[in-house]
Design brief:
Layout (H helix, E strand, L loop, with lengths): L4 E4 L9 H4 L4 E2 L15 E3 L4 E3 L9 H7 L4 E19 L5 E19 L9 E7 L3 E9 L7 E2 L5 E2 L6 E4 L6 H13 L1 H4 L2 E8 L11 H8 L3 E5 L4 H13 L12 E5 L3 E3 L2 H12 L5 E8 L2 E7 L2 E4 L4 E4 L7 E2 L36 E5 H7 L10 H11 L4 E11 L12 H16 L5 H16 L3 H15 L12 H9 L7 E2 L24 H16 L13 E3 L6 H4 L4 E5 L6 E5 L2 H36 L2 H10 L1
Parallel strand pairs: 11-12, 11-14, 12-13, 16-22, 24-25
Antiparallel strand pairs: 1-8, 2-4, 3-8, 4-7, 5-6, 5-7, 5-8, 9-10, 14-21, 15-22, 16-17, 16-21, 17-20, 18-19, 23-26, 25-26
Length: 647
């Protein structure tokens, strides 16, 4: 039975605050005492207590198992010392609770075999416990009734079943403490450590994990299983490509021939059990699939930031999958929260979390790729950062290997809302790589993409983000140069883009707005978001006002004395389009930039952009042909070997 474990019962680390505990267990408000534990898989519960495990890490996402796995049923097994009643429940698509089965157990094991039939479109299963005496649950978990069976490949042949073995890859760039912490987390759980064949860490920075306290002990723990590769800054795609290159190669890092390769970011906190869960899913899948971990918010750890993403085929931009809600707070809205009667449609609750969410790809903050998939479809594209994970997921899907973003498998990562990556140097890679992937994956017209780009350009100009528009111009130019240069500019694009940004004041970070004179004020400029029932009308009015102001010459006095100091949430087009100079705090709150309106510069940037848009539309079909023809070489081991051999 234990060899067929799908999901362990799991408890939070000792000392976790209440909001984080809510990811693991919910104790009734009527309980007189709290449950206690000394390890993460057994719990002592006082008599007269009720606990529910309808929680993110302990409920069983049955609809996902029904959709993707070989299983028709699963087994819940709970080992109890003392006397307690165990009740098993399931949810429907809308979160409605339905009792399945229950029994009283005294010093024994409660075991339930549960059908997956009712979970076609959504639903979880979970268990609750009511104690008659002091009780210790020594072990619990969800199990398969049989061992993994062979998997069906897209061509109808069979592979596997494969052993529970994985190579973990963690690229790192100037985050030595984070990288060491990731190694320590993997080593901290004996069950997780036991399935790891190798740990591959490409180090692309100037601050090395090897110089960090704890590194030597972590490396000693993994011994010959640990492999570090120092290389130039090739970005995320270069780091992840090195991991795949070595894992599939004939060197020491690939000697174990692991059937699965697990990608993880270095700047994360991982729930180690996620490794075991991803392996179980990958092994029990009907056909090989990519298994993605979800993203919890590292700064608000009870918040689920991302639970599934797709690429919108209209404008070829990534977005949340249908029914996904960013930044869901489980402490405020546990899985049991169905909302209240009479709530507005957009009122926060957890109903949509009971749906199965289907995705196009998963971010490489955590993603498990079967070896058979990597061997067939090749390496990541040389994109430096952004879109490499999306393209790989789309490519895998084209070959018949879908991606599933799985609830209960997760890492903690800084939320996107705490980064400026849509307007800083990364904006170049966002746009260039979006166009590259669109050329390879998008079969429709480019009109929707160009409309989206034009809208973004206008918003950037209204927000006085001239450096962003300037590097997006470079992005379009570099895309139109074709695919032959991608490897050549892998290391040089970032320095070139950084140099361009230095020419614009909105890219120069100052320590504090206090270094500048006190703002003169912004009469009539809206600060809060424009919402409510009349939002479209209000936005149209403010857009007209903003455009009228933006088409007038700026008052140069406001380039020396700002009119306002805006927080990031206030720095919107409807506020910035009405000023000639203002500071905006960076997303991380560590500094400000002084944005200054320049009509001539804005006109020139807009003209360059529109001219490029016309050229892009005229040549996109030809470029699409070029990029698709080059794709096999761009993702080949031979091409990447030249990069790695030159490092």
């Amino acid at each position: 039975m234990k060899d067929n474990q799908l999901q362990r019962f799991l408890l939070p680390h000792l000392g976790e605050p209440h909001d984080v505990r809510m990811l693991y267990l919910i104790e009734s408000e009527l309980n007189k005492e709290r449950a206690t534990w000394t390890d993460r898989t057994s719990i002592s519960i006082p008599a007269g207590s009720e606990l529910s495990f309808l929680t993110y890490f302990n409920a069983f996402p049955a609809s996902y198992w029904r959709r993707w796995s070989q299983l028709d049923s699963v087994i819940l097994r709970v080992e109890v010392h003392g006397t307690a009643r165990i009740d098993v429940y399931r949810s429907k698509l809308d979160g409605a609770r339905i009792g399945i089965e229950g029994k009283v157990v005294t010093d024994g094991v409660a075991e339930f075999e549960l059908s997956l039939a009712p979970f076609e479109v959504g639903g979880w299963m979970w268990w609750e416990i009511t104690t008659e005496t002091d009780v210790t649950v020594t072990e619990a978990g969800w199990y398969a009734p049989h061992a993994p069976k062979p998997q069906i490949m897209p061509d109808g042949t069979e592979v596997g079943p494969f052993p529970a073995r994985v190579t973990v890859g963690i690229p790192t760039f100037n985050r030595p403490a984070d990288a060491v912490a990731a190694l320590e987390a993997l080593a901290s759980d004996p069950a997780v450590d036991a399935v790891i064949d190798a740990v591959i860490m490409p180090d692309q920075g100037t601050k090395h994990p090897a110089d960090e306290p704890g590194y030597e002990d972590a490396v000693a723990h993994f011994g010959k299983r640990f492999h570090e590769f120092r290389q130039g800054n090739l970005g995320g795609s270069g780091g992840y490509s090195r991991i795949m290159y070595e894992a599939l190669g004939d060197g020491a890092a690939g000697a174990a021939k692991s059937p699965y390769i697990l990608y993880m970011d270095d700047d994360i906190a991982i729930e180690p059990d996620s490794v075991l869960r991803a392996l179980a899913i990958a092994r029990y899948a009907k056909s090989p699939i990519l298994v993605g971990g979800q993203m919890l918010n590292l700064q608000e750890r009870s918040h689920l930031h991302s639970m599934g993403e797709v690429v919108n085929r209209g404008d070829f931009m990534w977005t949340a999958a249908p029914h996904v809600h960013y930044d869901h707070d489980f402490a405020a809205h546990p899985l049991s929260d169905r909302g209240k009667f009479g709530d507005k449609p957009d009122a926060p609750n957890s109903r949509d979390l009971h749906r199965r969410i289907d995705v196009d790809y998963n971010g490489w903050w955590m993603c498990m790729i079967p070896r058979v998939v990597a061997e067939e479809i090749g390496q990541p594209l040389p994109l430096f950062i952004k879109w490499d994970d999306a393209e790989y997921g789309l490519r895998a899907g084209q070959h018949g290997y879908p991606t599933a973003t799985w609830p209960g498998i997760a890492i903690w990562h800084m939320a996107w809302s705490d980064k400026d990556d849509a307007i800083d140097w990364q904006a170049y890679f966002h746009l260039r790589n979006r166009l590259i992937v669109a050329a390879m994956q998008h079969d429709g017209e480019i009109d929707g993409i160009i409309r989206s780009m034009l809208k973004a350009t206008v918003k950037h100009l209204l927000c006085l983000e001239y450096s962003t528009v300037a590097i997006q111009i470079e992005a379009i130019k570099d895309f139109m140069k074709g695919p032959d240069q991608l490897f050549d500019i892998l290391e040089t694009s970032l320095p070139r883009i950084a140099a361009i940004r230095k020419e614009y004041p909105d890219a120069v970070i100052l320590p504090s707005a206090a270094e500048l004179p006190r703002p003169t004020g912004t009469p009539g400029v809206p600060i809060k978001d424009i919402g409510g029932r009349l939002a479209p009308v209000k936005k149209a009015v403010w857009l007209a006002k903003g455009l009228k102001h933006s088409l007038r010459p700026a008052n140069p006095a406001h380039h020396d004395v700002p009119q306002a100091n805006f927080a990031p949430i206030e720095a919107r087009w409807f506020s910035l389009s009405r000023v000639d100079g203002a500071t905006v705090a960076t997303a991380d709150g560590r500094g400000v930039v002084y944005r200054k309106r320049d009509l001539d510069k804005a006109k020139d940037l807009f003209k360059q952009t529109r001219d490029l848009h016309k050229e892009l539309k005229a040549n996109f079909d030809q470029l699409r042909t070029q990029y698709r023809a080059a794709h096999p070489d761009l993702v080949s081991r031979e091409a990447w070997s030249k990069v790695f051999d030159s490092e």
